[in-house]
Amino acid sequence: MNPILRNIAAIVLGWLGGSSVNLGLIELGNKLMPVPGLDYADQENFMDAFAALIPSLEPKFFLFPFLAHALGTLVGAFIAAKIAASAQMKFALGIGALFFIGGVAINYMLPGQMWFSIVDILFAYFPMAWLGGKLAERKVEDPTDLPLDHRLS
Predict the structure, then answer these.
(1) Number of domain units in the chain
(2) Structural domain of residue 75, as residue ranges?
(3) Which is more confident, 60 or 145?
(4) Whole-prediction pTM
(5) Largest Cα–Cα distance in the chain?
(6) CB-based contact 136:78 (threshold 8 Å)
């Protein structure tokens, strides 16, 4: 495949894959630990009602949003690094930057508890993107490290 098209696919598929994980974890969190007093059916006023409730939420309600941001970034970065034709870590960190921008935006749109915003911004994006890039690194096996019977086949 053409390296330019492969790199474009790395960004698009990394972003879509990571976003899918993010959304799935947010939905799972809403099902397992619904926020008390929040009407999930009222889509018109949902964001305003949620923003009003955030300051009163216990820390347990921030577990799934953090996991969604961190694991979405990790998976997206891994996918991008695996697909990229070259400079895999740069593509992984690029996905981290995209998710970081989204994280800053959501923390601005839904201002919440400061401790969560700090933890989220510091640990959910670039560290997870770096880890995703590291996990996706292509290892070249040294044939001299294999047992003799495997080298002969």
Answers:
(1) 1
(2) 3-151
(3) 60
(4) 0.85
(5) 68
(6) yes
